[in-house]
Amino acid sequence: VSPSTSIYCTLWTFGEYSLAVIGEYLMASISIQRHAFIFHPNLFRTPFKSFLFFYAPLVFNVAYPTTFYLYAIILYPCQSQWDYTSTVCGYMNCYYDNKILGLFDWVVNNIVPIVFIIIANVTIIVRVVVGKRRRNQVVSWRQQRYMTIQLFNISSLFVIAWSPSIVIGLIQQATSTSLFVDIQLNYVMELIYLACLLLPWACMSLLPEFRKWIWKYFDRARIGHSTIVP
């Protein structure tokens, strides 16, 4: 870790933890709101309902993680013993010593949003499939199918990135074993970065014009150009 200072580690973990959980909560909220957009569009017709069911959750998803980690990492009265030879300063935040606060952070800030993402996306696919088979449909499935697929692809990225860490954490809690600690800290936790690094590409890959440009680029590279010489 460079610079190897307590201030740097404190600010780094505050920023990383806050942004990671903000991303989780936003994805969970958007997954749930997609149900309302498809099946209950009238919820967003009035300004009050639009604020209550759309804007207020988005504000909460940004404000809550920031406030929680501001208290837990920066304001909580303890002294963290950082490990400057490990990634993310060894994940040695001292608020973990408070078992209630540490368990709350792990369950509410990591497990709960991923569970909501999975449930919301599985149920929306089931509702779309069931709805297509019904007659006298109110919902235009052709218009919603593309956005449903788009949401499912992006949310799957969060599930793939976070699930290994959560599963190993559950195993550790259930068996009280430290067998997977090194794997968790040095390898599995790094998978979480995939959600940040690949999200822009996942979004762009679903844009028709971007896909056409990519295929045209690869076709051009595959065909190549012949050089005419004397």
Automatic annotation (TrEMBL):
Keywords of this entry: Membrane, Transmembrane, Transmembrane helix
UniProt key word Translocase: no
Lineage: superkingdom: Eukaryota
PROSITE patterns named in the record: G_PROTEIN_RECEP_F1_2
Main location group: membrane
GO CC list: membrane
Span of domain G-protein coupled receptors family 1 profile: 1-203
TM spans (from-to): 12-32, 52-76, 111-130, 151-171, 191-210
Keyword Protein biosynthesis: no
Subcellular location: Membrane
Protein name: G-protein coupled receptors family 1 profile domain-containing protein
Provenance organism: Adineta ricciae
